Amino acid sequence: MRIVVLAGGIGGARFLTGVRATGAEVTAIVNVGDDVTLHGLRICPDLDSVMYTLGGGADAGRGWGRAGESWVVKEELAAYGAEPAWFGLGDKDVATHLVRTRMLDAGYPLSAVTEALCARWQPGIRLLPATDDRMETHVVVGDPDRAIHFQEWWIRYRAKLPARRFVFVGAEGAKPAPGVLDALAEADVVLVAPSNPVVSIAPILAVAPLREALVSGPGKVVGVSPIIGGAPVRGMADRCLRAVDVPCTAAGVGGLYGARSAGGILDGWLVDPTDAGTAVDGVRVATCPLLMSDETATVAMVRAALELA
Ligand code: FO1
After folding, report:
1. Which atom of ligand 1 is nearest to the CA of 88?
2. How far is the CA of 132 from the centre of ligand 1 (A)?
3. DSSP character for 288?
4. Going by CA atoms, what residue is nearest to atom 1 of ligand 1?
5. Omega into 84 within 30° of 0, i.e. cis?
6. Residue 64 lies in a domain
7. Confidence of residue 233 (pLDDT cuts 50, 70, 90)
8. Which of 169, 194, 286, 305 is the most buried (most CB within 10 A)?
9. Quick one: average pLDDT of 214-234?
10. What is the pLDDT of residue 145?
């Protein structure tokens, strides 16, 4: 079976360990909207979260970056007063950013860089950026409007600055990365991971040819709710949903994605039993415990999503 997964950072990475466990041929199409250039290095948080998690190098508790990390470079940068000091640059993580930046500067596309980095980490699935083109999520805050990078909003301001809207800079004209359209054309099932719908899944869908290939593809599309009982499982999806006037509920996010038969993307929507009775027009809804407390629970979720498909 060929499964394609649309995924963002931490929630997506954890979900992908369950999809990999099914033994299917898995392609993850990963968000690049979080990507940022800091201290002269190109950093791809969602691709790295997935690569480290599936490669066994992630710090599971922190959710991002490497296990056994140290912060000497970060401290030395701070000693020089080199801004930004708010970004957590780990010493082991810096090596990833140095290799990526060097390859990008040499003209390799992000997809080739990701493939090269994955040669070391062996994630056991194919990792594709949604696009090789530069695309970043910026957040419009304050009065008068000013835009800051998503990472600054997320890390420096802990998403506390009211977001007026999210702008996916570069989405216009961004092309799907090599392999993305083929994967969608050949997929038996497409799963939308329980990632942040506003800043992880939406930027992937903002690559128009990718969204068109998803909607017109042969594979059933089943999403997994990132919201249980009106609250995000982790992260700050509630603050993102508020910014786009979407209720922080399983039904709200299901409605945001919408039914494929009505211009949306979903055939099925998997919700937690807490949200049993959730209805989304034109979408078949099923329930399954959605807390990814361990791999067994995650595999059960994936099986339930495949069953629904
Ligand atoms: N998240 C934080 O909350 N604080 C950080 O200092 C931080 C640093 C960081 C460095 C590399 C990286 O790949 C991810 C990092 N993240 C950090 C997570 C990052 O903000 C992610 O984009 C979000 O967690 C959403 O996926």
Report:
1. 6
2. 21
3. -
4. 155
5. yes
6. yes
7. confident
8. 194
9. 95
10. 87
Position 142 pLDDT exceeds 90: no
In a domain, 65, yes or no: yes
Q: How confident is the model at residue 252 (pLDDT cuts 50, 70, 90)?
A: very high
Domain interval for residue 89: 2-136+170-308
Say if ligand 1 is within 6 A of residue 43 CB: yes
For tokens 């038996």, name the residue. 188
| CA 26 / ligand 1 centre spacing (Å) | 25
Question: Relative to the CA of 46, which ligand 1 atom is closest?
Answer: 26
Q: Give CA–CA dist 45/55, Å, rounded.
A: 15
Ligand 1 center–CA 155 separation, angstroms: 7
Ligand 1 pocket test: pick from 155, 157, 158, 234 the residue with the most ligand atoms within 8 Å of its Cβ.
155
Chain-centre distance for alpha carbon 159? 17
- Domain CATH for 117: 3.40.50.10680
Domain-located, residue 266: yes
> Is residue 142 domain-resident?
no
Report whether pLDDT(172) > 90. yes
Residue 234 pLDDT > 90, yes or no? no
Tokens 């949903």 locate to 241
For ligand 1, atom 2, which residue shows the shortest CA distance? Answer: 155
How many domains does the chain divide into? Answer: 1
Q: What is the pLDDT of residues 75-107, one digit of tens each?
A: 999 999 999 999 999 999 999 999 999 999 999
How far apart are the CA of 73 and the centre of ligand 1, in A? 16
Residue of the nearest CA to atom 7 in ligand 1? 88
Ligand 1 center from residue 147 Cα (angstroms): 19
Dihedral Cα 230, 234, 240, 246, nearest 10 deg? -20
Q: Which residues contact 309 (CB under 8 A, 6 or more apart)?
A: 188, 189, 191, 219, 220, 221, 222, 267, 268
**pTM, 2 dp:** 0.97
Q: Strands of 150-296 (E only): list them.
A: 163-169, 189-192, 220-224, 227-228, 231-232, 268-271, 284-287
Q: What average pLDDT does the segment 283-297 reach?
A: 96
